[in-house]
Amino acid sequence: MQEIRRRWPTTLCITQGEFGLAWRRHYPTNQRIDYRFVERGTGIGGSDADHEIRWFMNRDFRLALLRNWNTNSQEQVIDFTRYDLPAQEPSDASPDKPMRNWSLMNRLNQKGTRPQDKPVRLGDLAAEDQGVIRRRYRELFQG
Q: pLDDT tens across 11-62, in order?
């Protein structure tokens, strides 16, 4: 914390709840939500330091593209959830079968818990899915 305060003296450390409330004030209806970020060093403690995930999240879908940034490998879709389709939440947990996975899933999920959860190239997604992505991020299909 001391190093953070030294570099950015006006930094605030807030709770998740405070962040959630601030987010809701800024995006009360999710109509304008559209954020992107890059995560480098996936895995526990960044154990896959050569991996990079580009995340795209908006009111229509969540998309994650994975690549090895050291070798400049081709990106693979590892997560794609459309919010206009039925999504399945995990079944209720029981003492003999605890459930810790609360991801909404429909097309492709990064956790790889279902047979269809295998990474694919963006161009190998169904044409309809590509169209949904292209409406928001045309640049992903160029080059």
A: 888 899 999 899 889 888 878 888 899 988 876 776 788 899 999 999 999 9
- Beta carbons of 77 and 119 less than 8 angstroms apart: yes
For residue 108, pLDDT beyond 90: no
Q: To which H or E segment does residue 23 belong?
A: helix 16-26
DSSP one-letter code for 89: P
Q: Can you give the pTM of this predicted structure?
A: 0.74
Task: Say if residue 110 is exposed, middle or buried (CB neighbours under 10 Å; 0-12, 13-18, 19+).
Answer: buried
Query: Would you say 31 and 59 are in contact if contact means Cβ atoms under 8 Å apart?
Result: yes
Nearest-angstrom CA–CA distance, 81 and 63: 7
Which three-class secondary structure state does DSSP give residue 78? strand
Q: What is the rounded CA–CA span in Å between residue 23 and residue 58?
A: 14
